[in-house]
Amino acid sequence: VHSRWRFATGDATRAPFVLVPAASGIATGGGDGIAARYGAYLSPTTRAGLRVPVLYLRTTHGAAEDFRFDANFDVTRRSADRPIADDALAHVLDHARNARVPVLVTLNGGIWSDAAGSEPDWDATDHLEQDAANCQWNERDAVMPDDHLKHLPGSHAAPELARALTLNVHAHEVRRYKRRNLEQAAAHLVAFLGEAPDLLIGVNLDPDVYINPFFSESQWYDYNPGTLRQFREWLAASGPYADAGRRGAPDLSGLARDPPLALREVCSLAQRHFATWDDVDPPRRFSRDIRAPFWKDPWVREWEVFRRHLVSLHYDELAQWLVEAGLPRERIWSSQGLMAPADDCMPLALTITSPVKNYDSAGVSIAGSKPRDGHLGAIVYGAAATNDIAMENGSTLFSTLAALDDEFAVVEFNTADLRHPERRPDYAAAYRAWRDLWNAGARFVSPMAWNGSNGLHADDPSYVSFTAWRNTPLEHAARDFLLARSGLPRGSKLWTFGTQAHADDDGWIADAGALTTCRGALRVTPDANRRVALHSPTGIALAGSRAGRIVLGLADDAAVVAIDIAVRTAGDGVWHGVASCPDGAAQRTEAGRVVAMSGVGDEPVDQLRIVISFESQHERRLTRVAVLAPARTLE
Predict the structure, then answer these.
(1) What pLDDT digit, counting tens, does each position of 292-334 carry?
(2) Cα 264–chain centre separation
(3) Which residues contact 592 (CB under 8 A, 6 or more apart)?
(4) DSSP state of 341
(5) Kind of pairing between the strands at 521-525 and 514-518
(6) Which of 126, 176, 198, 312 sits at 20 to 30 Å (Cα–Cα) from 257?
């Protein structure tokens, strides 16, 4: 199996795919065993590593030293019967160095970083949250106690999610601590990168940058006075949107509302009279009256676009600070939660200016989650993890991520549904998730979690489905996934029609002849003309530059006469021929017959048509279809 794609391995032009299970407690063995468990499945194009959270505002030298980041934080330090933090950056890097295991570091200073419990003597977030001026405010100008939502599920029991730091640029102390501690963490990462570049996958930043959505519309955020000030400045293109570096704020010139508004225009949109700009106030009531729902209110739209801008700007700045500290931008990812909306809800916002949604979308937009100085990192569970949610653009989630950033990654992942943790995801869902992530070109995927619940104990009352990884159908499918792609360059596409444990047509249909599924193959039966015409699923989003060769997994004795291949782009009903090959001209490899394509064009291919002519009408097995980039030639 490991030699199947040997003929194509040398054509790899992109970094390998990495399986990166999330882990914690590295100093006490929490990351042990990765190499032994997955070593047999790896290759030059598929690797395995670990993702470990480092709480850069919590693992500090404490209040006495102004909460400076401590790479050697004492993880034996405890409070309320649990560790203050499970991991220190130095331990993580030592483990990577000693075990020769690549590591992705989650630099977490976001809403989950202090969720395990308040520690104002050590945690800069908890220290900052003692002052309401540093927090997100609700529409009643109030800030809730941090444990107000302790009934919600999370990686920690009774997570503290009700009190979140504000994202506005006038929160100088919040920004000072975040920037300084990120820079201090970056110094260690940059040094490690210089020593062992193959062992640092990179970093992902602040999981779930939100305008707090956890109150489920019983409260709305952020009405912090500094945020309201920035909202007015954004509308009018004033303050930092006009004067770079004003009072320590960043240069936001060019990011104001386009075009900016005059005060009279603001009054018209809000249907309210504001005597001065200081009186301008965002909407504070969100009606669901079908005659005038909030998502159709022009003034709510201004507020929602601004909230998305805030979230996007925060990821931009986090990444910018790391780049300025010396970390290469190609090793930085965001970590935005892209949970599937409820059944009666509109699709996720694609862009900052997308229509307002009929729920509190927390300032999240997909395009706004990609930092200027880094890559798009997504957190997906349930239907989002299986690529099974409706999108604004009519595409799939994974294709949308790839279109925005061809080096996107999934930084937290489980096919379990957070809304229905009692449901146990099966192998079929896992197979589809891995298939679609590969075909979209994901740089890496981080399953949740290496030392979470174990699938061997799925019937235990303490079992948590959305943190389960080892010995689950999700892990079993991942092993089969890695084995099928051993040596296959990332950026290729592959349909294996299931595995030895699962039958799947992968969305392919027969336009001539017939097909049936079996485990790990299609059974194809030619028509009276001894032909089978297969159509791929639509939406394959194959870049023309990567459409070089088709591989068909047919046995050597399949008695093929000829292979003809055509493509069409989205919205184009016409098939365009790109290959017509007599069987004798096809290259024979362990993976199957290889046919070169030409004249594909620059537009992304939306669908493939493969016509195979046989010598007889006998049934054959097709074990795979792959699309590879053009073979590289050596000069």
Answers:
(1) 999 999 999 999 999 999 999 999 999 999 999 999 999 999 9
(2) 41
(3) 551, 552, 553, 554, 623, 624
(4) P
(5) antiparallel
(6) 176
Q: Which of 530, 493, 531 is nearest to 610 (CA)?
A: 531
| CA distance linking residue 442 with residue 363, whole number of Å | 24
pLDDT over 90 (residue 437): yes
On whether the CB atoms of residues 542 and 628 are closer than 8 A, the answer is no
Count of CB atoms within 10 A of residue 189's CB? 26
Nearest to 439 by CA among 374, 384, 501, 485: 485
**CA-CA distance, 492 to 284, in Å (whole number)?**
49
Helix (H) or strand (E) holding 187: helix 172-195
Rounded CA-CA distance 593/584 in Å is: 10
The pLDDT tens digits for 14-31 are 999 999 999 999 999 999
Q: For residues 456 and 133, give the distance between their C-alpha atoms in angstroms, rounded to a whole number.
A: 47
- Rounded to whole angstroms, the Cα distance separating 118 from 161 reads 11
How far apart (Å, rounded) are the C-alpha atoms in residues 230 and 170? 8
Residues 75 and 27 sit within 8 Å (Cβ to Cβ): yes
Q: What is the DSSP letter of 479?
A: H
Q: How many CB atoms lie within 10 A of CB 528?
A: 8
Q: From residue 249, give the alpha-carbon distance in Å to each of 122, 134, 168, 528.
A: 27, 15, 10, 73
Asked if 534 and 509 touch (Cβ cutoff 8 Å), the reply is yes
Query: Which tokens hold the place of 144?
Result: 């809730």
Among the residues of 405-472, which ranges form H helices? 427-440
For residue 22, the one-letter residue type is: A
- Within 10 angstroms of residue 444's Cβ, the number of other Cβ atoms is 29
pLDDT digits (tens, 9 = 90+) for 260-291: 999 999 999 999 999 999 999 999 999 999 99
Which runs of consecutive H residues, i.e. helices, occur in 257-404?
263-270, 298-324, 382-385, 397-404
Per the DSSP assignment, residues forming a β-bridge with 285 are none
Question: Residue 452, CB half-sphere, CA atoms under 13 Å: how many?
Answer: 26
Q: Which tokens is 396 given?
A: 């799939």
Contact 43, 487 (CB under 8 A): yes
Give tens-digit pLDDT for 459-492: 999 999 999 999 999 999 999 999 999 999 999 9
Nearby residues of 353 by Cβ (< 8 Å), 6 or more positions away: 305
Number of Cβ within 10 Å of residue 180's Cβ equals 18
For 612, the 3-state DSSP assignment is: strand
Beta pairing, strands 509-512 & 531-535:
antiparallel
| Residue 226 phi, psi dihedral angles, 5° rounding | -65, -35
Residues 300, 306, 307, 311: what is their CA dihedral angle, to the nearest 10 degrees? 160
Q: How far apart are CA 420 and CA 422, in angstroms?
A: 5
Nearest alpha-carbon partner for 207 in 17, 11, 412, 10: 412
Would you state the structure tokens that stand for residue 552, as one six-digit string? 């068909």
Global pTM?
0.95
SS3 169: coil
In tens, the pLDDT along 567-611 reads 999 888 899 999 999 999 999 999 999 999 999 988 999 999 999
Neighbours of 405 (CB within 10 A): 22
Nearest C-alpha neighbor of 310 from the set 214, 384, 212:
212
Q: Is 552 in a helix, a strand, or coil?
A: strand
CB contact set of 593 (below 8 Å; sequence gap of 6+): 551, 552, 554, 560, 563, 583, 586, 587
Give Cα 522 distance to the centre of its chain: 31
